[in-house]
Structures are given as structure tokens and as C-alpha cells.
Amino acid sequence: MKLEKILDKLGSLEKNSFIKVIDNIISKNPENNKEIDKILSSADKGLKSVDSQNISKIFLLTQNEFYNYLKSEFQDTSSQLDILIDIIIRDGNCIMKQDWFSRLYDNEIKHLKNRLKQLKSDLDNDKSELSESRKRDYKIYNSCLKTAYNNDLINNREAKITFDELSIILTLSKSLGLSQEEVKLINYTIIPIKKDEILEIINSLKNIGVIFYSKKENTVYVADEIVRLLRKLREKEVGDKFLRRTLKIMRQPTINQISKIHNINRKLGQSEKIEEIIKEGVSIRGILENDIYKEGTTLTEKKKQLTELCEKGLGIKSLKGSTLDDKIDSLISHFENIEKDEKVGISIDGYEKMLIELNESLPKLNKQLKEQFELQDEFVLKANFLLDYNIKPRDILDLIAKEDLTKFTKEYGIKQRGDDILNVLENYKDAENLYLENYENVAYRNLNELKENGISIKESELGLKFEELTKTIFSKLGFNVDEKLKKSINTSKDQIDILLNIDNNEVIIVECKTSKERGYNKFSSVSRQIKSYRKLAESCNLRVIKTLLVAPEFSDDFITDCEMDMEMNLSLITASSLMKIFEEFKISKHTSLPHVLFRDIVINEERIIKALKKK
Predict the structure, then answer these.
(1) 230, 210 in Cβ contact below 8 A?
(2) Inter-axis angle of helices 180-190 and 132-154, to 10 degrees?
């Protein structure tokens, strides 16, 4: 869940710890101080009086400093933050009830203790599957860590690892090719595991600004933006879902090779091995730098193999960089951009329909999803619920075994040729709703954004498309969009865009305008048009009770001119406001929107939304 959405949900006391951390960073003149001051200049009482959207902006401007602050918290090895962070950065754990967090914590400690026993047994047993070279790597790391942890005892100080020692130890672990889980296991052969009370843990994480906690709902929230920083702190370059996506396109011998390197049971099935690689916290960089190549592969061959993997397997045609490191950075950056992107790829309604039909075809999917993402709810195949956890349609399809996905496509008559996942996504795109979700982009004639969101349209078609979408919205708001009446009164000279028939010969005229420029300001031409349309309607014995102009936004001069012209009875509504009203209307109990609510010069969507919530 995005930081802004979490902040909107919580009261001031529940946000207080996070605000204090950011306030403290601001007081130390961060890098983006000037931009932060601009945002704070309009706030009377500092950061506490700033709205959620601007707090989110300030957080993004201070994220480098926030990351360094987290690093200093993390260097205290006795805090066992690694155990807690590994829980909250897993896909699906950004929203947790207190009891669920407690259960996951207990399971993590139990799992860790069992793994420690197994590790000690493998190190002592000459016949274990652990190779001699891997045992040597473990022992080298263990000896260095033991020295770093215990050397303070010689000077009669408490045993701990300093920040400098920790940075050297981490460099050593990378050089030895140890996974995140291997490092954690060896750490806890030396540092004793201490199990704390869950409320103590929640308060500790809340006080350092890592989580938010709602006492009223007994719920822990971790913002997507903070998860990304915590992941970076744990040297985990991408989310589990992106690592899974990359591993799934690899051949069985390659997965076996990765499993062998990281001491994963090669007798497991392909999908089980992939999940174990993910659980082990194996770095995607380590996999793509070394683990997937045969011995003796040259650097040129590695670059070629990685490029082919991305182009043919992941469909990424523009992998940047000339070195192997650059190419891996480009892939990681690609996944980061997908994760930050709020776009779903298909419409919300299309996502919902896909989940309903997947559940009908694959009844075990709900349970699989619950287990995979450690979700507490009984039924989780709901689009808006999953989007709160940043789980998108592609993430669901990545979990489904190939044979099950093929079965599903056959059952629902989805195209068989080519990539099954892409065919399913295309099938549920739901063009109308996808356009509605991009209504503002159409208004602004933003072709690049539309293209990125999977919409292909010519610029010359945008004006007509905006009119069509506006008709659809008014129709769904319960208005009678009377095309027949409009055609009967329109002339070759005067062409009304939309005519809403209110009955008893009363109508509302709606004019639609798209604009690339910020602040629509062509008042004189619009006013001439609308006055002409009024006369046309009145000449046909129709009473025009209101005229509406829908555009992306309006300049201050345009609004002033509009206020001065009493003849038109014109109200202005931005595409964004109309969409917000429509979204609220969809979940309200109203069957039609009362037209009397359109009474301001500039329509105030908050007032209309408040009115819709009353019934």
C-alpha cells in the first residue's frame, strides 16, 4: 500500500513516530532542503499540518537520508532487525493484523532454529550434501564473524559488531557468494536468538518509522516506499515476485545448478526449487553474474546469454549497458519501475473478472495465493484487496503452473498461440474500463502515458474518445444521454457534444474539451459556442437548465470570466473531479446523481462526494 494511502487511513497519533523521524531529518539540512521548504512554506504548524500527499513527497525527497538513518539502526546486531525486516519485506506482508504478525514471527523463529540445527549437522557430517568448498566458505565467514563479535570481550566491553566490522563482514559474504539466508543462519550460530513480545516489536519498529500501527484495527501497515528501502538494506535487489518471474523462464539444468551452489535439495520439483531459491534470499545479481553460467563461460558469452534471457524470456528488448553489471542494473531498474508504477496493465474490472474465472477453473488457487503471500483473509481473490498488497494480475499468473494455465486458457477460449500469460492479460484488458481509468490522460492528450498503460490510439482520435468516455460516465451516473434528441436539433454549424434529457423539455448541455496545455483558457471561443448551443436548444422549445464544460483543468482567468458571465449558467468540471464523483457514485446507494448538485461555477467534487455518502 502506498504511503499516501496509509497516512490517509490513520490518525495523527498513529503517524506521530514517522513524522518525528522525518522532522529530525529535515532539521539536519537534507540534500533536497529547498524543495522541502517550498512544500512546508504553506504549512502553519510544520510537517504535522501537511496533508498526506505532501508528506509522501517530502519522504521521497528525504529517502536517501532515511535510508542512512535505517542503516545506523540496523548496525545494532543485538536488535535482530534482520529477522523482522525479512518478514515485512516479503510480498503480501505490507498489511498484517497483530495476531498474524505474531504468528509469522513465531514461525520465523521456529524455522530459523530448525535451520540452525540442520546447518550444524551439515558442517559436522562428512557425508552431508554440502560440498567441501561450501563448508570452507561457511567456516571462513563464521570465524571472521566470531572474531568481530567477541573481540570486545577482551577489552571488557559488551560483545557486539560495529558498523565498520559489519561492512567488512558483508563484503566478505558477497565475495564468498553467500545468500541472505545463509548469512543470517551463520550469524545466529554466534549471536543468540532472543524472542520478544509482539507489542514490544511493533512499538520498536513504529518508533523508528519503519511501520505504522492502527490500535483501532490492530493492524500493521508497511508503506511500499519503505519496503523498497528495507529491501535495499537487506541487499535484496528486487521483490520475490520478480525473482520468481526470472527463475521461471530458466531451464531445469540451470535451476539445478543454482540449487547446488546454494545447498538446496535438488530432488525437489522445478517449482519447489524455485520457491526455495527465493526463500534462501539468493541475490538476483549473484544469479545473473555467476550462478547460471557453465564453468569457463567467457564474459562476452555471459552478456549474450543474459541479453537472450531478457529478450526471449522476459520480453525486455531494451536492456541497457555494455558491461554485464550494467545489463543487470538495467534489468533491476526495469523491475523497480514496474513495482513503483501504479498501473495494473488491465482494467480493475478486467482484473476482477480474471480472478473470478481463475477461481472457477482452478479452485486451489485461493489457497496457493494465501500461502504464497502469507495472507490472513480466507478468500483473497479480490482485485482491490490484492492491489492494496501491490499484487498485480501478472504476479498471480506467474504463480500458476504452465499446465494449469494452459487448461484455463482452453476452458475460457483464450488464444492458444504464443505466451499464455500475455494472452490471458490481453483477454481481460476490458477496453472501456481501461479507457475510463485513463480518462484524465485522454483529457490531457497524454499519448505516452496512454501507450504505457496498454492503450493504442491516434492523437487525432483523442477529442472524440474524450467525448465518448464523458457520455459513458454521465450515462453511468444515471443521466439520460439523449443521442436521438441531440441529432434532431444539431445543425451542420452547431454540433452539441452531449445532451442530457432531464424530462419535461428540460436539458443540460455538456461541452468537452481536451488540452495538452495546463489550464484551459479559451473562454471567448467556448462562450460563443455554448451561447449558440443554448439558442439552438431554446429554438426547439427546450429549456436549458444548466451548461457544463468538462476539460482537464481551467486557468484562473477562465474561471474569472466565467463568474462574470451570468447568461450562460455555466459550471466548470475537471476530468479528475468528474472521475472522482463517478468512483464515489459507483459505491454509493444512489441510482442516479441529482443534477442540482452541479451548482458551483467550478464544481467542488468534495461537496458532491459528501452528499453521495449521506444516503
Answers:
(1) yes
(2) 40
- CA pair distance 477, 480, nearest whole angstrom: 9
In angstroms, the CA 164 to CA 159 distance is 15
Strands 95-97 and 219-221: antiparallel
Grid cell of 514 as nine digits: 481536451
- For residue 20, CA distances in Å to 48, 85, 199, 209 come to 9, 21, 20, 8
- Give the pLDDT band of residue 140 (cuts 50, 70, 90): very high
**Contact in structure between 88 and 230 (CB atoms under 8 Å):** yes
Q: Strand pairing of 570-574 and 543-551?
A: parallel
Query: What is the SS3 assignment for 554?
Result: strand
Residue 213 confidence (pLDDT) above 60: yes
One-letter amino acid identity for 529? Q
The answer to whether 398 and 244 are in contact (CB under 8 A) is yes
Rg (CA), the chain: 29
Give the Cα separation of 153 and 298 in Å (integer): 47
Rounded Cα distance between 18 and 377, Å, is 27
Among candidates 512, 545, 609, 203, which has minimal Cα distance to 212?
Answer: 203
Q: Which of the 8 DSSP states describes residue 602?
A: B
Tens of pLDDT, residue by residue over 333-389, are 888 888 877 667 777 778 888 999 999 999 999 999 998 888 988 899 998 899 888
- Residue 162 phi/psi, 5° resolution? -75, 170
Q: Coil, strand, or helix at residue 262?
A: coil
3-state helix, strand, coil in the chain (%, to 5): 60, 5, 30
pLDDT tens-digit profile of 45-67?
Answer: 678 888 888 899 999 999 999 99
Q: What is the per-residue pLDDT across 478-502, written as a single tens digit (0 to 9) for each?
A: 999 999 999 999 988 899 999 999 9
d(CA 407, CA 411): 6
Alpha-carbon dihedral sign for residues 43, 48, 54, 55: positive
- φ, ψ of residue 280 to 5 degrees: the values are -70, -10
- Contact, 489 vs 542, CB < 8 A? yes
- To the nearest 10 degrees (0 to 180), the angle between helices 523-539 and 556-564 is 40
Contacts of 354 (CB under 8 A, 6+ apart): 346, 393, 396, 424, 427, 428
Task: Quote the CA–CA distance of 415 and 203 in Å, as a whole number.
Answer: 51
Q: How many helices (H) and strands (E) does the chain have?
A: 33, 7
Angle, alpha carbons 318-322-323 (nearest 5°):
120
Return the number of other C-beta atoms located less than 10 Å from residue 124's C-beta.
9
Measure the N-to-C terminal CA separation of the chain; round to a whole number of Å: 29
Angstrom distance (rounded) from CA 277 to CA 272: 9
Alpha helices, DSSP H only, in 125-223? 132-154, 163-175, 180-190, 198-207
Helix residue ranges, H only, 345-438:
348-361, 365-372, 383-388, 393-399, 402-411, 420-427, 431-437
Q: pTM value? A: 0.68
What is the three-state SS of 301-314? HHHHHHHHHHHHHC
Amino acid in position 465: K
Phi-psi region of 444 (alpha: psi -120 to 50; beta: other; left: phi over 0): alpha
